[in-house]
C-alpha cells in the first residue's frame, strides 16, 4: 500500500513499539505521543476501573485496528 502525500494519517498497530500486540504503540504513533505515556495512562485507567473494561477495549481494538503494512525499508 502506497501512502500519498496529503492523504490522511491512518491508525495501525505498531510493528516497532509493541509490548503485547502493538495497539497502544500504534495509538501513540498516531497521536505523536510517546507510546510509554500511552501505556502508563492505560495502566492507570485499568487500575482505577478494575482491569476488565480496559482489557475488553484492548481486545476489541486488537481485532479492529489493522497491523501496519511492511515498507520496503522494513523488509530489508
Number of strands: 0
Helical amount: 40-55%
- Structural class by SSE content: mainly alpha
Beta-strand percentage? under 5%
Q: What's the overall average pLDDT, rounded?
A: 85
Overall morphology:
globular
Amino-to-carboxy terminus distance: 17 Å
The profile of the biggest β sheet is: none
Order of helices and strands: HHHH
How many helices does DSSP assign?
A: 4
Poorly predicted parts: none
Radius of gyration: 14 Å
Structure description:
By secondary structure, this protein is mainly alpha-helical. The chain has a domain at 23-68. It is 54% helix and 0% strand. Helix 1 packs across helix 2 (35-49). The longest helix has 15 residues, at 35-49. It starts with 22 loop residues before the first helix and ends with a helix. The relative contact order is 0.18. The model has no long low-confidence stretch (mean pLDDT 85).
Quick recap:
The protein has 76 residues and is an all-alpha fold. The chain has helices at residues 23-31, 35-49, 52-64, 72-75.
Please outline the helices and strands.
Blueprint: H1 23-31, H2 35-49, H3 52-64, H4 72-75
Annotation keywords:
mainly alpha
